Amino acid sequence: MASHVFMFHRTVSSMLFLVITALVITTSSGRREISELQEVEIQRHLKRINKPAVKSIKSLDGDIFDCVNITNQLAFDHPLLKNHTIQMRPSFIPKDLFRNDKKQSGLISTQLWQRSGKCPENTVPIRRTTRKDLLRWGSIGSYGKKDPNAIRNYGSHPAANFDPTIHEYAIIRGRGGIYNGIEAAINVWKPHVQEWNEFSLAQMWIVGGIDAPDLNSLEAGWQADRYKTGCYNHLCSGFVQTNQGIGIGATFDRVSTYDGEQFKVTLLIMKDPQSGDWWLIVNDVSVGYWPKSILSHLKGSASAVDWGGEILNFKVGGRHTNTDMGSGHFAEEGFKKSCSMDHIFIVDEHHVKRDAENVKVDMDNAKCYNLAHGSNDPNWRTYIYFGGPGQNPGCP
Ligand SMILES: *[C@@H]1O[C@H](CO)[C@@H](O)[C@H](O)[C@H]1NC(C)=O
Ligand SMILES: *[C@@H]1O[C@H](CO)[C@@H](O)[C@H](O)[C@H]1NC(C)=O
Known about the structure:
By secondary structure, the protein is mostly beta strands. The protein has one domain. Helix content is 12%, strand content 33%. The strands form 3 sheets. Strands 4, 7, 10, 11, 12, 13, 15, 16, 18 and 19 form a 10-stranded mixed β-sheet that branches. Strands 1-9-8-14-6-17 form a 6-stranded antiparallel β-sheet. A hairpin with a 2-residue loop joins β12 and β13. It is globular, with a radius of gyration of 19 Å. The protein binds 2-acetamido-2-deoxy-beta-D-glucopyranose (2 copies). The site of one 2-acetamido-2-deoxy-beta-D-glucopyranose has 3 residues, from loops.
């Protein structure tokens, strides 16, 4: 099988990733190309999505980051962004807004490729999509089959079979509020992933139109899988990147170790009160935004927010996968052992940051992966620990 070829070349990595769901639903053109895996098609497709580089930077792990002219990025192929004027920064100042109380619960994790170079002014680093990436996605064949009603399954990984029974979650959910943003400091790990087509991720979701067939979901977090898929095809083609230093789909420089040094990344997704665009802020630095104009339900505020872990379980051999969630250790092991998120905030209808309260814990199978939730902690505010090893005597 062709799949073995790529397995051989790739190891598990943890990387920053983003997903926008709106485009998966509204764009149909990307689907057919992937299922017809003709070499000519592949090359044409790569040419279309990999924009010309002003400079290319090869990361130590083999990934190539192309410094693409900011005005020439893939987002601007989107028909609704034809007349779009790039916003270079949000109207709010992320540092001021979120300055106060981030007590260090871990070191900031940076990106591996940054050791190899820098992008010039007015360019943005885009991980180059490779032929292997395309083959991988095409080989799974279920790319266009997402179930519009399977809310949280959206976008988590387009290569996945979107049968909701294979997704397992341990998350907290916020409902019933008016949300203009979400934030968390997310502990970064490199979990074991059993199968080539499984993944493990830690992320936050912000959703508009949760009961609508064309709901919008913006997602950011870290992901580990046996390939590095990066930000691929239409999934990210609506995200306008403005930062020349931070790449989406880039591997983290260092990750946490069990009972050892802890690393984290702070992510904020926040609606700009003036433009209505949704900004992504990484470690207090604005990276880019999802323009309001390509969204339907998120033109206004969001109605649902989630934080936590998700894995794919293909039940190979009739057994539960032993793919780890988080660090691979259950929530009760706590600090430095189980994966955490702390300083979990929402941004309310007045664009004021508040502790995430009134959240509900949702675990698909607590014997496989679980979650513990606390609030009003003097250092960590609202926080969670989550994860687990998957297959074990309680999770056969
Ligand atoms: C980017 O493209 C614009 C418009 O084509 C051009 O004016 C500018 O010089 C380019 N910038 C770089 C860094 O290549
Ligand atoms: C862009 O501008 C042109 C000319 O004003 C207009 O005809 C077109 O509808 C606009 N497209 C979008 C997506 O707004």
